[in-house]
Write a structure and sequence with these properties.
about 325 residues, D-Maltodextrin-Binding Protein, domain 2, 3 domains, 10-stranded mixed β-sheet
């Protein structure tokens, strides 16, 4: 008898399989289906019709299983067949195996579609203001079985974590740079420019816009993200002329300190929604463009969960979607 594609129970071993009195090593998956069909229809002809095969062929296949086992699985009568005691036990085990195989196939298909697995996301805090809430909600709704791990990191940490494989996707202020960055694909997801935030009692509060020169001599408040190279190139000229700089952990702290009258805060325009009743957001004119919020991932990573997240991004972020569409064919080619 052919030993191609032997069926081994999930979690079992070949030795355990051979030791089973009813599930013999060498029985093929299709033969288990034949035996179960005969048991369900209680008739070889009706079972053969349901399987789309001839009755003699089905009889030969079931007979081969019986010879492999060394016992009859069915009592043949003029009116049909009835499982023997051994046959009833064998059919029960066969059904379990077939169910496991079907479940495994379904899980494999779900994994291939990115519906299971895990996705590790690193992000700068500013991405939580506008971009990530709706995007993550849509992804979780479409792929609830994907384990999503989110970590707040600096832009530099995002790039390093991507390259070492600690995360799968990063949203940072500007594209990751430095050694190994050529192995990453980076796509801008949101543009930003600098705005000032101050207490309502500050002289700037009544103005619709201020110039960068007006910030000279002012006590300024900036988040630690201002120290990162891409942002520092934009902010350095402003900060160098300040009448003192207070460093804050994040934009929430910048706005909170501005609300206390500590100084004039410098924040991205995307955080306007975080303004407090005690504060006023003021445009800086001419605008000082900040590095874009950028989505980055390893160019060689073709994991289905990452692909699923990029698909959701393409569908719900039109501008970003067009940029992603230009790099997605390369991912699909690599996956194939």
């Amino acid at each position: 008898m052919s030993t191609d594609n032997p069926v081994v129970p999930s979690g079992g071993t070949a030795d355990a399989w051979r030791a089973s009195p009813w599930l013999a090593w060498g029985v093929e998956l299709r033969q288990l289906r034949y035996v179960v069909a005969v048991a369900e229809h209680r008739h070889f002809r009706r079972a053969a019709q349901a399987l789309g095969m001839t009755q003699p062929s089905l009889s030969r296949q079931v007979g081969a299983v019986e010879r492999e086992l060394g016992t009859a699985l069915f009592d043949r009568t003029a009116r049909g067949v009835v499982p023997t005691a051994a046959g009833a036990v064998y059919v029960e085990h066969a059904r379990r195996v077939l169910e496991q195989v079907e479940a495994g196939a379904a899980e494999a298909r779900r994994a291939a579609r990115g519906q299971t697995g895990a996705l590790r996301l690193g992000f700068v805090g500013e991405a939580l203001v506008e971009l990530l809430p709706s995007l993550l909600a849509r992804f979780r709704s479409a792929h609830p079985a994907v384990a999503l791990e989110c970590r707040e990191l600096s832009t530099a940490q995002c790039g390093a974590a991507l390259l070492t494989g600690e995360i799968d996707l990063a949203i940072s202020r500007g594209a990751p740079a430095g050694e190994g960055a050529e192995r990453l694909t980076a796509v801008p997801v949101a543009g930003d420019h600098l705005v000032a935030v101050c207490h309502r009692g500050h002289p700037f509060a009544g103005q619709s816009a201020i110039s960068p020169e007006q910030l000279c001599g002012q006590p300024l408040i900036a988040s630690s993200a201002a120290d990162e190279p891409a942002a520092a190139r934009v902010l350095a000229p402003v900060l160098s002329g300040a009448g003192g700089v207070t460093s804050a952990r994040d934009v929430h702290t910048v706005i909170g300190l501005a609300a206390c009258g500590i100084g004039v805060g410098l924040v991205p325009s995307s955080v306007r929604g975080l303004a407090r009743p005690e504060t006023v957001m003021i445009e800086v004119d001419p605008p000082l463009r900040l590095p874009d919020l950028t989505m980055a991932f390893r160019a060689a990573d073709v994991s289905p969960p990452l692909g699923a997240f990029l698909d959701v991004t393409r569908a719900h972020c039109p501008g970003t979607g067009r940029r992603l569409s230009r790099v997605m064919p390369r991912r699909h080619q690599a996956a194939g």
